[in-house]
Amino acid sequence: MPELPEVEVVRAGLEPALLGSIITSVEVFEPRSLKRHDASLGGFEQLVTGATPKAVVRRGKFLWIPLDDEHAIVAHLGMSGQMLLRAPGHAEDGLLRVRFTIEHSEHGELWWHFVDQRIFGSLAVDRLLPLAGGSQGAWGGFAGAHASDGAWRGVSRARSRTLPGIRSTPSLTTRPGLPRCAASTPVSSALCSTRT
Fold this sequence. Notes:
CATH superfamily: MutM-like, N-terminal
CATH architecture: Alpha-Beta Barrel
Number of strands: 9
Mean pLDDT: 76
Largest sheet: 5 strands, antiparallel
């Protein structure tokens, strides 16, 4: 499973290509890669097509890509997931699960591939909600709608168990200026507080 440094490398690699781009189309080759997407929000492809990514943010092992003030793409790489930027026409070796076609003012047309051998990773669109108390702990002071209902917590449930008599101390992000977030609840951005 990718650890925090690997997820941060993916975030840093995607950021220059996604900021200032428009997602012109989405092709889903493996619907199981959208297993955490809430269909009541609408179809994944319809919500994402035409959107402009506003940021690429890491929260624990999750990548958040806010599309506007209401929605964000939430990605988890699972054990073998990868986010790859490709030139149009590049053929993947059968592990391609989702392809985003993006148009960037400087880089031109690019393909952004979600490749996942074991299909343990996932993509979803989640609603952004204001944080309690107006905290700016997450991008723009918003957290995912499913952060509080436990829909995303199953990924880290096994890691959050502790042995009797041993106190668990959650890992914190270490990049200056980023909010402190407990890794045992990776999407609970509402519990984050900005460093002082």
